[in-house]
Predict the structure.
Amino acid sequence: MKSLVVSECFLVRNSLKHLFKNIFDESDIKILSDLKEINKEYILWSELLFLDSNSQKNHVVKVVEDIRNFKDIKIIILDTKNDKSSFLDLIKIGIDGYVLDISDEDDFQYVIKKIINGKKFFDSELLQNSKVKSLVNLENLTKKEEKVMKLLASGLSNKSIAKELDVTEYTIKKHVSSILSKLELKNRQDIILYAIENRKM
């Protein structure tokens, strides 16, 4: 997989380079520190663009639009500042992924592989907005969210699920919130019914 990583932050660049090498055993990875360094040669070469938008927000939408008009490649945006207006503009252009943080390596690998296989991924926090929901088809749960749903459906509390999965209770609350959002459900009871109906127990 020929991947192009663009970020002003050297920690982000180097970390993503390392992560991509783990995900794609024999991949070519190029890193750039500025959006202005992206040229036609890089775009023609790339199969995947991972763009850290945090320091170059004013130019991201235009650059992505130009790339989309030139070549159809997978585009993933990292936006730790959660700029919803840029997200809406980028969704309309047709990005493949929008990530607000990279807190778990396994989840990140799942997201990247999902996108490479033709699916889309948008952080669940962004899907709370009804306008966004009309633009985005809700995708499948992550593997961790599926585990949480199964344990929740078996009657365990957040505290018990956290102990079972060796994570914090806060993490479980985030997973439950994400499940509710992605599946457009209202409460834990709805999750249990969904799990039963869809044989996810």
About this structure: The first strand starts at residue 2 and ends at 6.
